[in-house]
Amino acid sequence: MSVVRVCFLGTPDFAARHLQTLLDDSHFEVVGVVTQPDRPAGRKMQLTPSPVKVLALAHHIPIITPENLRKEPEAFEMIKSWKAEVAVVVAFGQILSTDFLNSFNYGAVNVHGSLLPLWRGAAPIQRAVQAGDTVTGVALQKMVYKLDAGGVIGERRIALDEKITAAELYSKLAFLGCELLSVELMDYIRGNLTPVDQDETKVTMAPKILKEESLLSFEKPARFLHNTVRGFNMGPGTYIMFQGKRLKIHETFYVTSDSNLKPGLVSDISDEGIFIQTLSGQIILKIVQPESKNKMASSDFVKSVSLKKGDAFV
Predict the structure, then answer these.
(1) Which of 95, 98, 206, 265 gives 119 a disulfide partner, CB atoms 3.0 to 4.6 angstroms apart?
(2) Based on the number of CB atoms within 10 Å of its own CB, is 125 exposed (0-12), middle (13-18) or buried (19 or more)?
(3) Res. 314: pLDDT tops 80
(4) Which 8-state DSSP code applies to residue 82?
(5) 3-state SS string for 219-263
């Protein structure tokens, strides 16, 4: 069959990796890119283009950056002028209209960072890690006008241990998502694959992470706190309060055994780290970062502060 004309919609690095896959594949021609407008970034808050925009510019692909595609008819008209046959959406960050989804011969497909119907929503990778899932993956779905509810065209799975972080998983899933575009997308377009409806009884949601979730509470189980640390490590991060200041937490582990102390009290200090009793089990602080300082091992942190067994982290 002839080369398939693609309209690509995406914003972060995760999406840029998928765009590169389409650019490298002779079966596809990316005729236009839609991405979020430039946003302030860095300490100087300078307007910065998205990774997808940077890549599209390097390949001289037409780009539009609507603030809200559904409310900007001129942007939709521009997209239609590209005469794309399929839209590929990867972490775009905007809700798309039914008119948009129906304006392509093969519709619109989306690469989503979970095994749908699990973890529909904005933060599937982070929420899967936070929940302590032992298996996750990435899915290619045919988009419908309902959040991540379209039929699944294909998926890739990956086993998780209790140490992998969201940032590490992010890179692994990006690689697997690119495989879906190279294989299943073309099989779908050729008519060799039919989207399979999701089981609505198994839906779980992955809502956007709120800033207040970054503060760890020792009134929760140690395993949950450890999973939250590794789930939020690519943003917004996690912290606890110590002597009235934030102490960022970068690496932890946990034990299921309990001390005879109340939640929030230091139960041990060793070469392994700082042990703190929680609602259930003890969390072990391994890598921390005091305010205005660099990351450090907890063994170095305790050398600079007064801390002993029975002290409280408040």
Answers:
(1) 206
(2) buried
(3) no
(4) T
(5) CCCHHHHHHHHHHCCCCCCEEEEECCEEEEEEEEEEECCCCCCCC
For tokens 């809200």, name the residue: 68
**pLDDT for 62-116, tens place per residue?**
999 999 999 999 999 999 999 999 999 999 988 899 999 999 999 999 999 999 9
278-292 pLDDT, tens digit each: 999 999 999 999 999
> If DSSP codes are grouped into helix, strand and coil, which group holds residue 29?
strand
Confirm if 298 and 273 have CB atoms less than 8 A apart.
Answer: yes
Q: Is 64 helix (H, G, I), strand (E, B) or coil?
A: strand
Q: What is the 3-state secondary structure (H, E, C) of 144-191?
A: CCCCCCCCEEEEEEEECCCCCCHHHHHHHHHHHHHHHHHCHHHHHHCC
CA–CA gap between residue 40 and residue 62 (Å, rounded): 23
Own/partner pairs for 288-296, CB < 8 Å, 24+ apart?
A: 288/247, 288/248, 288/249, 288/250, 289/247, 289/248, 289/249, 289/250, 290/242, 290/245, 290/247, 290/248, 291/245, 291/246, 291/247, 295/248, 295/250
Enumerate the β-bridge partners of residue 33: 8, 63
CA-nearest of 161, 119, 155, 162 to 137 is 155
CA-closest candidate to residue 273, choices 251, 241, 293: 251
Question: First and final CA of the chain: distance in angstroms?
Answer: 65
Residue 32 pLDDT grade (very low, low, confident, very high; cuts 50, 70, 90): very high
- 55's enclosing H/E stretch is helix 51-58
Q: How many CA atoms lie within 13 A of 50 on its CB side?
A: 26
Cis omega (within 30 of 0) for bond into 66: no
CA distance 65 to 75: 8
pLDDT value of position 243: 87
**What pLDDT, in 10s, does the model give residues 142-180?**
999 999 999 999 999 999 999 999 999 999 999 999 999
Residues 62-91: b if buried by 16+ CB within 10 A, e if exposed:
ebbbbeebeeeeebbeebeebebbbbbbbb
